Amino acid sequence: MTRLQRAATIAFVLHLVAGAAMAVVLRQGLETNPDLQNRLSFLVNHRALWTLGWLTWTAAAIAILYFYMVFASTHHTGNLLVFLTAAAIAPDLAAQAIEIGVLPDLTQHADWFILLHRTAVLMSGYVANGLYSFSALILAWSTRQAYPVWVWLSGVAVGCFGFMLSAAALVNSTAGMFWSNVVLVPSILFWLAGVALREARS
Fold first, then answer.
1. pTM higher than 0.90
2. Is-contact 166 140, C-beta < 8 A?
3. Three-state SS across 135-159?
4. 147 — phi, psi (to 5°)?
5. Residue 33 CB partners (closer than 8 Å, separation 6+)
6. Considering 4, 6, 8, 142, which has the largest number of Cβ atoms within 10 A of its Cβ?
7. pLDDT of 79-136, one tens digit each?
8. CB neighbour class for 201 (10 Å; exposed up to 12, middle 13-18, buried from 19)
9. What's the pLDDT score for residue 21?
10. Are 187 and 137 in contact (CB under 8 A)?
11. Nearest-CA neighbor of 71 among 122, 142, 123?
12. How many CB atoms lie within 10 A of CB 193?
């Protein structure tokens, strides 16, 4: 197994787990649950699940940074995009820290809960995700000669759908964030799987 195949496989597995955590666990405490009291109750009664769900996304963020590092090194695309991705980690992990360590303690203060959650969404969904998406778009496009069309197009789709998610986060569109995630996560999985398969056959 090559280093790139290993990095793509790790990122694939962690994003698959994180996507499942979002669909099954985290959605119950996010805007996709329109009942605020139900959201607050979920955080109080299922704090361990809430924490574990966000930790899967922490692992996924670190895994995508590692994948981008190995991908850029393998294809000699330079380090700028890796540096941008590393810069994205800070607001992303800070936002997740708010979700894990602050919001469950604010369930009796709905106004503060909503304000800090909105802050976390902007940090992760807008700032960090925008940087991740830009890096994915350029990495996929610049290496399109090395991969089948479906693989590099999946990478381009990651960038495009990621920008849609960032825009939705900026304007606070719950429907936009939901549907962009619905297509973004499979695009990431297709791209990572394609890179891993290409490496396995080389």
1. yes
2. no
3. HHHHHHHHCHHHCCHHHHHHHHHHH
4. -135, 155
5. 27, 39, 42
6. 8
7. 999 999 999 999 999 999 999 999 999 999 999 999 999 999 999 999 999 999 999 9
8. exposed
9. 98
10. no
11. 142
12. 17
Amino acid at 133: S
Structure tokens at 107: 């369930």
184-195 confidence digits (pLDDT tens)? 999 999 999 999
> Which residue has tokens 């197994």?
1
Which of 160, 167, 165 shows the shortest CA–CA distance to 191?
Answer: 160
201 — pLDDT class (breaks 50, 70, 90): confident
Q: What pLDDT, on the 0 to 100 scale, is given for residue 200?
A: 86
Residue whose pair of structure tokens reads 């996924």 in the numeric block: 60
DSSP 31: T
Position 202 pLDDT exceeds 80: no
Contact of 76 with 19, CB cutoff 8 Å: no
